[in-house]
Amino acid sequence: MATSVLDHAGTAAIHQEKTGLWSWITTVDHKRIGVLYGASAFFFFLLGGLEALLIRVQLSRPDNTFVTPEFYNQLFTMHGTTMIFLAVMPFSAMFFNFFIPLHLGARDVAFPRLNAFSYWVFLLGGLFLNASFLFGAAPNGGWFGYANLSSRQFSPGPNMDFWAIGLQILGIASLAAGVNFFVTILNMRTPGMKLMRMPMFVWASFITQLLVLLSFPVITVALIMLMFDRLFGTHFFVPQGGGDPLLWQHLFWVFGHPEVYILILPSFGIVSEVMPVFSRKPLFGYAAMVFAMVFIAVLGFGVWSHHMFATGMGPIADTVFSLATMLIAIPTGVKIFNWLGTAWGGSLQMKTPMYFALGFIAMFIIGGLSGVMHSAPPADLQQTDTYFVVAHFHYVLFGGSIFALTSGAYYWWPKMFGRLLDEGLGKLHFWLMLIGFNLTFFPMHIVGLHGMPRRVYTYSAGFGFETLNLLETVGAFILATSFVVFIFNVVKSWRSGLQAPADPWNGATLEWAIPSPPQEFNFPEEITVHSRDPLWEMKRSAGGRLPEPVRTSGAGIHLPPPSIWPLMAAVGVMLVFLSLMLHEKTGPVGIFIAMSVLFLSIYKWAFEPVH
Amino acid sequence: MAHAEAHALHPATNTGIDNRKLAIWTFIGSECLFFASLISTYLVYKGKSLVGPFPKDIFEIELVTAGTALLLFSSLFVVLSLNATEQGNRKKALLWLGATILCGVFFVGMQVYEFTHFVHKGLTLQGNLFGASFFTLTGFHGTHVTIGVIWLGTMFIEMLRGHVPPAKALNLEIAALYWHFVDVVWIVIFPVVYLMN
Amino acid sequence: MLESTVYQLLTGCPRMDQRNARRRSLAGALATFAVALLAGCGPASNYKQSSLDPKSDFTSMIHSLFQVEYYLALAVFVLVEGALLYVILRFRGKAEDPEPEQVHGNTLVEVIWTAIPALILAALAVPTVKTIFRTYEVPKGDALQVEVIGHQWWWEFRYPQYGLVTANELHVPTGRTVSLRMITQDVLHSFWLPQLAAKRDVFQQRTSTLWFRTEKEGLYPGQCTEFCGLQHGRMAFQVMAQSPAGFEQYIAAMKASAPPAAPAASDSAKPTAMAGTTTTTLGATTIVADTTQGAQLFMMKGCIGCHSLNATKPMGVGPNLAGIGTRKYIAAGWLENTDQNLARWIQHPQDVKHGVIMPNLGLTDAEAQTLAAYLRQH
Predict the structure, then answer these.
(1) pLDDT classification of A15: cutoffs 50, 70, 90
(2) A126 near A86, Cβ under 8 Å?
(3) Residue of A nearest to C29 (CA)
(4) Predicted TM-score (pTM) of this structure
(5) C144-247 matches C2-135 in CATH topology
């Protein structure tokens, strides 16, 4: 008899949901870690949103003095850095954590403590980055920190140290999670779940993790070199010492381009889950959808210099990267058509998750088209570094990722929290967000083509930027209001929301087979799947409906015990980086202490009993 | 049989590869990109230093070749130790693991000596691009070797206490995989940095 | 009718006129979209710095490519968004509807909708590659050579063919190719001249190039578009395209900014003193010095340490001030060159553009005005 992922070895134990702060601090349960990611991501998202509103107020009028140029430069740098690394990625991580094991029919991820470690490192890294504000020294070199502005000579304060170190800390969190989910997906699928039967969200996450694993080391090296320049006096990116700022750009964008696919692929996965369920028919062209994502990921490593068309790399390089970029538009377009094909002939259930999924498609089309416009280098010579590209990436990152993540939030909320969110408020959220979003970002295409550069703390009157900028600011506030509606919906659902059944949407995947919220052990028994839509298949065999699953005692199910060592190791990582940043004050002693904390924590972690 | 025992406490995996083994392979794959970036930087800046000292002024090939040879042999030694572990021969396993660790310690020692010597000769992190890229690349590699030595050292102590029976050979195998990776990276660094001049 | 929309939105209750309510919501969204779109309408000439208003051969070439990609994008937009809207409206269902046909895919359809985008992109690729190569070929012939040097936060321009240097306002002749060779003195900048030359980033170790020829006289604004620190937002410049004759006059005027070398001392010819100047003879050299109050302040307050009034000699870390009196803008191409602004810029540079190297010198109002008047003469 083969053992399975749902092994019943070990002493019998009745599973009770643990409560209290300590249980959250020591949790290794993927569902709780997912919730932690989500709550933290939402907090940072609001911070990033506040930064955006301050930017928009400053830009609402020409020659405005609402904020100083110093603060403005910190605002736009932190807005970008926060939204990318502390909002979109951890929102995706919330869903990876909560749902990948459920989709696979597993009890948890391959390495639960490593999972917790990833979360704590992320949280500490995010807090570290934002602590810079307390010193009035938030990063101010743009989210891509171009050399040699980022050098000690031209950025003398600690701002860019916070940035370089903060991102390295976050990189460790992402890499650890990358290894974890990569192994989980390959190794912990329930019987019958061949790779080509996995839910699309799992496929998207799998490819995302691969991108993380291959791209994050590159930026780690770049950041190490920048840190060495700033802290130890090397000249990797300092022209006076022979260093070449263009090397920074290449290293950064070899990471940076796969990063944007890391940001969007999970969203593709979410939409590929929502569209079939709310069209009541299977995803159109599953295999093509998988191969399209694989193609996008592979090709995504070959287009990085399309961010550098204005540097004058020469006609051959420009041509190669231009054609590669155009090529990548094909699988992306295919995905859109496949989503349309899913809805075609379906019975569209117009619930909130579907609104956001459809909104995603509508907005992503626009973002994709402006992306294709950028792909032609001569045209890009007018568009890059202007508000046109700001419009482009907000259409794909907000219109794309945020809309899709919001769709996922409404879709999976009942499963995660056992409560239904209000449909009316959800639709209000949608319309406010759609209108606010387009009002904010569509005019940016126009104002960019008409001559407004990006990252400018103000602009002069008489260039024709005034009206559109004011409109954009109004739009931003409407957008902000949409999130107030969401918060209100969450609070309302917490206080008096309807209890959610296991399967409120007539879902196709395994998470809908268990109670809402799931019990700690997820599945009482192992499920064997025979198709891509296992729950639809199960419902069909049962005559259309399945009975509401009962909560069981979970006796005999062994789960990994909670542990403090992931948090302690994360603290160790933080201390190591702090001791580097402050090495002039704390010296080698500081580094030694920090490393001791780290090594001790890893040692205790390694030798902690888990059976 | 040893295999079945080894898997008793761990559920079967879809790929047939233990989770931790797959994890170390995945990590190694990621680390390849890390070192590829460092090596690329070294190559991009090769010949671009504005001032000396230059490689031909600095390198003494004999010592580093000896270290390289030892590192290569250490990979063989750790395989022999793993083999002995799987067969339950604790004494042999300890012997070969000890030899591996000694080679690793020598390699790190060689590097520390080399670095000190180069600094005396005027090559520093800050001095020129050669110094910066050389010390960063080989320094990070050396750090990886050191971590490997600590890891193998811990395994050695565990083995002394009898905690590495054949059923737990996988623990050593995973450490050995990491060690092989560190060795392979050096096999790339050595010719690129020291021989290609 | 509005109430039913609001009712539906707030309660989520499906009603018989839900379809109408949704249609109205959709219409509302589209209307907002249209407002956003149309608010930007108006001829491109309303926008002083518009890239959609090409005035040179280089930017016209780029604009042609832009138009190809724009109309292609517009067509795809209408088709695909239209398909999306159609699907939403046509296939809306209710929970009680029967299960639709469980289609898994259609290979032929998928092949077609992979091939069509590929063809569209191929159609775009051809003019793109052609234009790429053309933009890198500097036209042969007698080009005006201009060297551009980016600084935090101003632009230096040199004419190697004339031995002249200036700042922030570049004069070029119409009907002649201008060949720009560009570097930076400090961090990365980007030279963006939307109507004439598009943009190029500038580096320390490599020279970036751009070229253009315009037939239209005028003042063309440009701006730095690579984030370069504190005052990136105020690092603009102007290009003044003049008729060839006007350009020659400009060059002559700039050359005349050099202090006149008096003829060698001889018995028969004594240098004529100009009003407000004194003449001193030091050995064989005769120096004619401008001793108006402004000139004295210019020296005593230290301006001379950073700024030169002599366009024939690059000197000092600050912008060359030859011709500043007639430049349209100051403080790097964005502040109108009125007497008031000029005095304010001289007196309170840190208030006008915080972080620039020029310090607040503690000048009195009178001193600032005197200096401004003095500069007005140059």
Answers:
(1) low
(2) yes
(3) A435
(4) 0.93
(5) no
